[in-house]
């Protein structure tokens, strides 16, 4: 036991989720904080009777004031602890088949899912991109970086912590290269496809590894099909469809640099004769397609940043589904995705139903997909399941 650690004591009625394994302690659940806790400190979480529930890092400026990192009362949260957690995360990916010649780009650490809340690490072959999302992780930055260096000996470790996260937690984010030498280009392979991403691409850590499995499924369905990859970014779904035997693939995004990079990647993978890349608003492309695609992939950016915006997002997804279903040929397939944690699978399905009704079509859900296994989710942490996708057959009435 660590008697010197400050204590965060919970109110009656707020115990069950934390006791059952949920890693978040919300501000409204806290009765009192004792022991002079300062931002980033390790604190002991207790129920109203003083029973131990867990230990985590204190974030007084956040709505989530504690993120529980261990249920062990004794273990020091030191270099050995971080090394062990990161080693476990790496072993999990290797056990599930990542890290070989076919795929050397993947998420190495997925925050709460890997027992390291507030930390994201994406691996791009020999470069690691990190996001330190809490003050607790920020003050332990050197422990994290040293452990990553010991385990993987990367060429470089790059910080891409969002400014919004740093500001909300009350710290100054790191700038650029934290360790090693980095020329600004992220190079990796996913399912045998080669990617080369310049530093100008500013999307999160640089790439969306979470849709790897769904891209493989789209590839398997695309032979002989005409495919639209809406919100295509660098055209990962388009590349999959083209390799799967699609006769024509159209990738659309409103970012000029993403379109340019996607076209280059397609050429380097010898798939450019099938794929066209266009800078355009994806919603307008969907609206104007008029049932001309056998498969439409609709994977928009996050539309609900929080629970407060959930109702607004529900309307936005329904409108998007209206345009997307109308873009599918009768009997074709719509791949309809949401990366908004606040919009669950049922809400996304309702949005699809409403959109189909408005476009005078019928959508029948054939498959449901979620984020890849390198984005694990604790059984007691439903918020961790942020990515949902429906594959639906669309018929016209």
Description:
Helix content is about 30%, strand content about 30%. It is of the alpha/beta class and about 400 residues long. Helix 2 (about 80-95) crosses helix 4 (about 140-150), helix 6 (about 210-220) packs parallel to helix 7 (about 235-245) and helix 10 crosses helix 11 (about 345-360). It starts with 6 loop residues before the first strand and ends with a strand.
Morphology: globular
Fraction in beta strands: 25-35%
Spatial order of the strands forming the largest sheet:
16-15-14-17-18-20-19
Percent of residues in helical segments? 25-40%
What's the helix count? 11
Summarize the biggest pleated sheet.
7 strands, mixed
Low-pLDDT runs of 5+ residues are none
Total DSSP E strands? 20
Using only C-alpha atoms, the radius of gyration works out to 22 Å
Quickly give the structural class.
Answer: alpha/beta
Mean pLDDT: 94
The first-to-last residue Cα distance is: 66 Å
Topology summary:
Layout: E1 7-10, H1 16-20, E2 24-26, E3 30-34, E4 42-46, E5 52-58, E6 64-70, H2 79-95, E7 105-110, E8 119-124, E9 127-132, H3 135-139, H4 141-152, E10 156-159, H5 163-169, E11 176-180, E12 186-190, E13 193-197, H6 212-221, E14 226-230, H7 236-243, E15 248-253, H8 256-268, E16 275-279, H9 282-289, E17 293-298, H10 310-326, E18 328-338, H11 345-358, E19 361-370, E20 388-396
Parallel strand pairs: 1-4, 9-10, 14-15, 14-17, 15-16, 17-18
Antiparallel strand pairs: 1-3, 2-6, 4-5, 5-6, 7-8, 8-9, 10-11, 12-13, 18-20, 19-20
Helix pairs in contact: 2-4, 6-7, 9-10, 10-11
């Amino acid at each position: 036991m660590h008697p010197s650690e400050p204590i965060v004591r919970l109110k009656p009625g707020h115990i069950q989720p934390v006791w059952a394994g949920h890693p978040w302690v919300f501000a409204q659940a806290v009765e009192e904080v004792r022991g002079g806790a300062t931002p980033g400190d390790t604190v002991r979480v207790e129920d109203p009777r003083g029973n131990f529930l867990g230990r985590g890092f204190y974030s007084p400026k956040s709505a989530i004031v504690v993120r529980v990192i261990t249920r062990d009362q004794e273990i020091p949260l030191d270099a050995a602890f971080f090394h062990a957690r990161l080693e476990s995360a790496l072993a999990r990916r290797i056990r599930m088949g990542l890290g070989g010649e076919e795929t050397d780009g993947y998420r190495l650490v997925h925050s709460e899912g890997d027992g390291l809340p507030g930390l994201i690490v994406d691996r791009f072959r020999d470069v690691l991109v990190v996001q330190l999302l809490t003050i607790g992780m920020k003050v332990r930055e050197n422990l994290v970086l040293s452990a990553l260096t010991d385990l993987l000996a990367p060429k470089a470790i790059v910080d891409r912590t969002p400014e919004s996260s740093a500001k909300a937690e009350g710290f100054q984010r790191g700038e650029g290269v934290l360790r090693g030498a980095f020329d600004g280009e992220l190079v990796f392979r996913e399912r045998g496809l080669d990617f080369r991403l310049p530093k100008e691409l500013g999307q999160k850590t640089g790439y969306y590894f979470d849709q790897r499995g769904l891209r493989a499924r789209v590839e398997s369905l695309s032979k002989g099909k005409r495919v639209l990859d809406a919100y295509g970014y660098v055209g990962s779904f388009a590349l999959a469809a083209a390799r799967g035997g699609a006769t024509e693939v159209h990738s659309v995004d409103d970012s000029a640099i993403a379109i340019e990079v996607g076209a280059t990647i397609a050429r380097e993978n010898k798939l450019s004769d099938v794929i066209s890349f266009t800078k355009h608003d994806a919603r307008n492309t969907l609206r104007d397609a008029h049932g001309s695609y056998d498969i439409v992939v609709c994977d928009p950016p996050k539309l609900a940043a929080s629970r407060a915006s959930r109702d607004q997002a529900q309307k936005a997804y329904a409108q998007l589904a209206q345009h997307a279903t109308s873009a599918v040929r009768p009997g074709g397939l719509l791949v309809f995705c949401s990366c908004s944690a606040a919009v669950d699978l049922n809400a996304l399905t309702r949005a699809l139903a409403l959109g189909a009704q408005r476009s005078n079509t019928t959508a029948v859900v054939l498959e449901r997909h979620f984020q890849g296994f390198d984005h694990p989710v604790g059984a007691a942490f439903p918020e961790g399941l942020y990515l949902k996708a429906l594959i639906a057959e669309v018929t016209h009435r």
